[in-house]
Specification:
Number of domains: 2
Structural class: alpha+beta
Distance between the termini: 179 Å
Order of helices and strands: HHHHEEEEEHEEEEHE
CATH class of the largest domain: Alpha Beta
Oligomer: single chain
Number of helices: 6
CATH superfamily of the largest domain: Mog1/PsbP, alpha/beta/alpha sandwich
Strand content: 15-25%
Helix content: 25-40%
């Protein structure tokens, strides 16, 4: 009997142990039942993935640099260095480069200020360089070969003849202290003056005095060009040739002959021109002094040109 009791006790132990093992599941079901009776908590969706690139325009942090300060210093120097245009352009250009490179740093204001100063310095340097070359060009061109020729005032016709023929023996000496010459002429020359005549390519002016004496068919002309600067040329031949060539361009005819020589202490060019629109002969001399160009001419129709008159006329010329 006692063995049956032990067996029943064993069965009871197993049953209670099974019950105890199933009780947590029952509690869990009860909890689940309770939670199902409550409303579910809202579910927050995960954030959407960001698109590629830089959608928020995020700017990388600026890096410290010495370029802005250097550009500013060069800009200040450029405001002085423009006086020497080549150096000013180099300094301003370097400052501009550093200023542009330094705009993305922590010292952006310094970089912008340097760019502005360097730009001003560069403009001033360019203006100074331009004015310098203009000045040099004007100075280099202040030679009589490039200045307007006073022969422009010479008439191209024989002019109005006087009513009386003049004998060579009755010629009289004419002196002009303002133009600095004296010469024998058949009668008192008529003077024409052109003042403040612009010189091409410069801001200067010059004065042209033309003296004309006439007989029946012959004109005796003395043209004096006075320039505001002294004529300095180691070789005056091109200047004298230019004066004669200008007469040819103005219709005085073609060059028949020409020869260089001396007129006292001055260089001269003797020439003969013939042809032209009315078949005139021009014979004369171009004489170059320190500040004047003299063109002394006898002009007559080719068939009536008197060389003995010319020799007396040109032989009496004196430069005062």
């Amino acid at each position: 009997m006692w063995s049956i009791g032990i067996f029943l006790t064993y069965l009871n132990y197993i049953f209670m142990d099974e019950v105890n093992n199933q009780s947590p599941a029952s509690g869990e079901r009860a909890q689940n039942s309770t939670s199902l009776s409550q409303p579910p908590e809202p579910i927050t969706p995960p954030p959407a993935p960001l698109p590629p690139g830089n959608p928020n325009n995020l700017v990388p942090p600026a890096l410290p640099s010495s370029k802005p300060l250097t550009a500013l210093i060069l800009g200040v120097i450029a405001l002085i260095a423009w006086i020497y245009p080549y150096g000013g352009m180099v300094i301003a250009g370097l400052g501009l480069y550093l200023g542009i490179k330094g705009k993305n740093t922590t010292k952006k204001r310094l970089a912008v200020t340097g760019i502005i100063l360097c730009s001003i310095g560069l403009v001033l340097s360019l203006v100074n360089l331009t004015l310098y070359y203009l000045y040099v060009n004007i100075t280099d061109n202040q030679s009589i070969a490039d200045l307007p020729n006073p022969n422009a005032s010479l008439p191209n016709s024989a002019g109005t003849a006087s009513s009386t023929s003049i004998n060579v023996s009755s010629w009289q000496e004419f002196t002009s202290t303002s133009s600095g010459f004296s010469i024998l002429v058949p009668n008192v020359p008529q003077k024409q003056t052109q003042s403040n005549v612009p010189i091409a390519g410069t801001k200067m002016t010059y004065t042209v005095d033309t003296y004309t004496a006439l007989d029946l068919v012959t004109a005796y002309l003395i043209t004096v060009g006075t320039y505001p600067v002294k004529i300095s040329s180691e070789d005056p031949k091109p200047i004298l040739e230019s004066a004669v060539n200008e007469m040819v361009k103005e219709g005085a005819g073609k060059i028949v002959s020409s020869s260089f020589g001396d007129f006292g202490t001055y260089k001269s060019l003797a020439f003969v021109l013939s042809g032209g629109n009315v078949n005139l002969t021009f014979k004369g001399k171009a004489i170059l002094t320190a500040q004047k160009l003299y063109i002394v001419i006898m002009r007559a129709p080719a068939s009536k040109f008197n060389d003995s008159y010319y020799q007396k006329y040109i032989g009496s010329l004196k430069i005062l």
